[in-house]
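REQUEST ID: PR-0412
SUBMITTED BY: lab tech R.K.
PRIORITY: routine
TASK: structure prediction, single protein chain
INPUT:
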Amino acid sequence: MKTDLKQKIYLRMKTPQEALEILFNRFKPEPIDAIEEVSVDEACGRITASPIFARVSSPDQHLAAMDGIAVLAENTYGATERRPMRLKSGNEAIWINTGQVMPDGKNAVIIAEKLNTLDDDTIEISASAFPWQNVRKIGEDFVVTELLFPQNHHIRAFDLGTLIAGGIFKVKVRKKPRVIIIPTGSELVRFYSLNDTFKLKKGQVLESNSFVLSSLTRECGAEALIEDIIPDTSEAIRDAFLKAADSRPDFILSIAGSSAGKKDYTAQTIEEIGELFVHGVTIMPGKPTILGSIKDVPFFGIPGYPVSAYISFNEFVRPFIYRLLGMDEPKDETVDVFISRDMPSKLGIEEFIRVNLGRVGEETVAIPLPRGAGSVTTLSKAEGIVKIPSASEGMAIGEKTRAGLLVNPKYIDNTILVIGSHDMTLDILSDELVKTGQGVRIVSANVGSLGGLLALKNATSHVAGSHLLDTETGEYNMSYIRRYLKGLPVHIFNLVNREQGLIVQKGNPKEVKSIEDLVRDDVVFVNRQQGSGTRVLLDYKLRELNIEPSLINGYDNEEYTHMNVAVSVLNCTATAGLGIMAAARALDLDFIPVVEEQYDIIIPSSFIDDPKIQLFLDIARSKAFRERVKEMGGYDPDKSGNLWQII
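STATUS: complete
OUTPUT:
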């Protein structure tokens, strides 16, 4: 057996449609024949294996539908308001409650609200009853032998009541499709193998994909067995695949090793011990997907990056499971969206863009999240997915398309979109909003102060965060607002004043003391992106000091948030970066103050009376918010939420 495999290029990539057609043509998946009988209380979510017929009628006796008196309708004829009729309690009229069995010889119920009790023995009625009035007759819901549910019905929680009422206490259902999940990767470790110190050894990576994919499998109605992590050797992978196939699951799902690197053994292993149908599909993320078989057991090779794994599962594994269950694949709910910024894409690749969603005016705005296939938070934070067709080079700002929903649509209407400069106090404000229990939440996009103003101009945001310094006047934001938001009335509120300075490693081993030190050969700088207020501040300080940006090693290395700057310093990929004190304190780094600056929130005046914006401002002014901000360090929140200017 070979112990090393040469690096391969992908086989000719297939479109998702071609790949699924190959898979279905090869296996022709039909509903699983195997049947098991389960108790009705365990049947929710299962698929009926045969039609289910009622064993009893519902109701199986005549029942009172209202509280009142049971009567023989014919004995009440002639009663009117002008000529009320008197009935003897316990004989002509029998008191009865909703759901009770009707007494013999009675065929109607007169509701309590229309009765006049004269004494313990006499009841007066002012209207006659008709036969079966306010009575649930035998078989009103269904009768014995009536079809309750057909074959291949997905049993829901509501269906359990129908089954029990019909005398069905055991249900024959299709056995769940069984999948074996095999994670591969010598670097992987399981979370439960770590001790309380939570320290990974160098080169180790926490394995999470198997837990995510097994949960997705269960959501579809299948059951999963997760195998131990398999190291990156061809022998170990081969043995694991063969062992899995010998246990005859409905399919095998392996994770990672599906790409074209020197240690990506999956594709060649499948070629050696089975059949390889597809290696590479024209989607992104998810391109390295593998489809094949081992000993006639369907095989899915899922990419190792978390987002790729999800997309690959959703596009190929999910429809396969529903075929095995004999069910139509559920249709995803979609919504029309307005693209908030350009989303370029490669021709020939169908791209899945995770987005946040919020309603601004009459439009639902889609804000793209980072595209990295390894960014697991883009899935947990995403509210929708926009597909860019393979024949397109992307979508432009303002373009309309549809997004698949990942959340309840009501969330969209209760979302405040905050686009602009990054500040950690927005996370505090967001948390305080959630604590109110009013369902209002913040979705933020960090595109820099100038990007935030342009978002307001393009009507793709409710709020912009900005700290743009006018280097001529020393004033913050006003000149930029007048320039870029001309004709758009806005309210400007102070959120915080904050310390900006140099973030350096703990103990400041390179003894960086000021911006002048950034030109030293032994200093590597990490910058913020163009259009950010921090970048404007840095360039202003450099001009003051007559320092050419080209003299700074790392001036072109850009990050989009203060925390990412701090992480670069923490990981020693940079010696220093310009950012806020709170980011340095959060990662236990040192901080050298440079300037105190003003961070404002700009809100179009047309949104000011919106209840969720008013709640947003109330939270910014609250004692709880201000105290939490002070605890972070480097902030002065004394004017948080105060109106500063109206333009």
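NOTES: Residues 1-10 have pLDDT under 50 and may be disordered.
REVIEWED BY: pending
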